[in-house]
């Protein structure tokens, strides 16, 4: 299946009435704009346009300020009322201001000004509510963290929204209300937020700026409760009527369409229904192709495996599908959400979202900044399950692991040994209560069975609730021994 998308042209707008009296721009920087850096850590700021009929400008003076100090001044020739020139800026924690003057008769007249210009990296976050949740505790702001336009969810991108251009990113939501919001949990799932990037989007940007000293732009196109289909491109629909289209419009208007380094995708809970789960792999393939075609500079996709919680009866399958997707594509990397603090059954607390950002940062640093990692930064993954004795199964992981023996909830201890499930054939596993004991040793977990019954496959974690209860699963967990990152859950893995 192939799609075409027509995106609006980002050029040709008049900066302001006062400037338009002398100069009409085709290309020019905007206040707070982020220019994507090239391989040399630089970007070219282009000015082009024409002078108006009422004046006789032959020369412009360009003044460039870097962190408020005059950095350079130069003169630009105008020929046949046309001008076109560029200025190279450096990536880093620098803010540039550009001023253009008419220097005729030694009487300087300011014709144009654009302030707070930076050079750095651009990212997209999208998915459903956990991709863009806000918090009243998210008060961090930085002159080096930018966004563009309005995060709308499902709402129409109005003419007023189109007037919102570049600005400082935010993880807060001033208009959000409700009990969960007041307690510092997520919110803003269906509310328009100018320059909104979500809690963990802001935390990730903060960590990237602090660690790598490079400005960051994040454009968040998440839509609460959206299925994977609702995040896809529909060429038969008007672009601004779809989540994909609204996101692509903003990225294009920002001039970043070919410079998105990575997409962070947190979605899947709404596809845990049978008919949706069965098509998830094919739908992701379509989504991936469209992302790579529309955002031609895309290097990585970071996928979050969903946490047991909101959704239907096929959560185990979706989690397994997400793991297999990460193995299918070299550019797709996966991160677990197991053992993340503050899960309320569907969303996370402020601290939980910050933990998600902290988990994904090392992967971004490795992949996009070529940072050498001295320790394991990925979630534990099951490599193989096999019979190591008549009544013993060994699980081999890709790193040393540890297990929590139990998790106590409302006075009930939920034991780790009861969180493994088995099947006798390729069908979904239903057999529980088969484990006598479980222990971890280096990269292995050894399961002692109650009988010598031969099982075909093993699953770790119930679908979403502790067996025999209506309580959402929230531990005990398998974790990396050294990095304490929760393991990726696994579903119906063959036992050899």
Blueprint (SSEs and pairs):
Layout: H1 17-20, E1 23-27, E2 34-36, E3 42-51, E4 59-66, E5 69-77, E6 82-90, E7 96-102, E8 109-127, H2 129-132, E9 145-148, E10 150-151, H3 159-162, E11 166-168, H4 179-182, E12 193-194, H5 199-212, E13 216-220, H6 243-253, E14 260-266, H7 274-277, H8 280-294, E15 300-304, H9 315-328, E16 332-335, H10 350-369, E17 382-389, E18 392-397, E19 401-403, E20 406-409, E21 412-415, E22 420-423, E23 435-441, E24 444-449, E25 457-460, E26 478-480, E27 490-494
Parallel strand pairs: 2-8, 8-13, 8-14, 9-13, 14-15, 15-16
Antiparallel strand pairs: 1-3, 3-6, 4-5, 4-7, 7-8, 9-11, 10-12, 17-18, 18-24, 19-26, 20-21, 22-25, 23-24, 25-27
Question: Care to describe what's here?
Answer:
The chain is of the alpha+beta class. The chain has three domains: 17-117, Immunoglobulin-like, CATH 2.60.40.10; 119-369, Rossmann fold (3-Layer(aba) Sandwich), CATH 3.40.50; 382-494, no CATH class. Helices cover 19% and strands 31% of the residues. It has ten helices and 27 strands. The chain has helices at residues 17-20, 129-132, 159-162, 179-182, 199-212, 243-253, 274-277, 280-294, 315-328, 350-369; strands spanning 23-27, 34-36, 42-51, 59-66, 69-77, 82-90, 96-102, 109-127, 145-148, 150-151, 166-168, 193-194, 216-220, 260-266, 300-304, 332-335, 382-389, 392-397, 401-403, 406-409, 412-415, 420-423, 435-441, 444-449, 457-460, 478-480, 490-494. The strands form seven sheets. Strands 2, 4, 5, 7, 8, 9, 11, 13, 14, 15 and 16 form an eleven-stranded mixed sheet that branches. A four-stranded antiparallel sheet has the order 17-18-24-23, with no helix packed on it. The chain has a three-stranded antiparallel sheet with strand order 1-3-6, with no helix packed on it. Helix 5 crosses helix 10 (350-369). The longest helix is centred in the C-terminal third of the chain and has 20 residues, at 350-369. 45% of the residues are buried.
